[in-house]
Known about the structure:
globular; five-stranded mixed sheet; 30% helix; Metallo-beta-lactamase, Chain A; 10 helices; six-stranded mixed sheet
Amino acid sequence: MSTATTHPVDLSVVRLNERAILIGNIKMATIFESGISRRALIAAAAGTGLLGLRFANAGETATPDESADGMMGLVSIYKLGALTLHCYMAPGSSAAVTTQIVETASELHIIDTQFVQALATEVRAYIDSLGKPIAGVYLSHWHPDHVLGGSQFSDLPYTTTAEISKDCESNQQTYLKRKETFKDDTPLVLPKGTMQLGVNSWDGLQVVINQVTDCESEHALTFHIPEAGLMIVQDLMFNNAHAFPLGNQTNWISALNDVRNTEGLRLLGCGHGLPATTGAIADSIAYLEFQKSVFGTEKDAEAAIAALTKKFPNFDGQSSLRFISALYK
């Protein structure tokens, strides 16, 4: 597992398990500004001898025994004034899905719970290693890749909005089919729909929770922490990863423009891929516009997938593209 930290955005520390080591004099902030991919970040760490080269070269097909510390996920760490954001990102074989960990002075707040149990167990172990109480676990939207790890957090307060709770209830059969496919016999744990939108306080920090409608999913949450210049947008942003193809691209682009117009943002927590600076919003909009044009012109799913992979050959999350077939039935 490799991790990165910012000054405000000086990301120059890599941590493996409990050891903290500098990555030479790499200015990770500059690298993130240029939109470095997960593969490139891992390769940079491998170049310092911190990770095995097999892990760096394997990229999205990495398995636990291919990393120096036996971790499947990648954790990047960002110090943003009074808080620290820890982003746990799954390997590309699990769509580079993220769990966001907001660490304040005295507590932790967790957003989304991973797709498969092995990764959910790993992220829970990482969270527990931070040594602070977990004040809450929150679900950003109903999609299974953010929900199915919920059983690893069943001992904690787990919430979302009433609308997203209803989305979850409506899709229980989808969850159970996925669990059967994964041979996952853990209980299906869903959040309570008791979350309040608007201004909340996390350990004295103002957090503005907003719900967008009919974008990547029917309902989805964003978490804006103005003091830190941070907004966790989850699946409104796929950073260097293929976006879910069954959303409403028009509404989605409008929501991203609203994010772009938010004053003072320095960092965005993405639902797939590493956190990004605000410049990546334009890239996400360009992807969605291209995606929409492809679906309007290509005659079948195979041609649409080929067009997207040709245009974005290095993107993670290619497993998301299989959903394109539903558009051509």
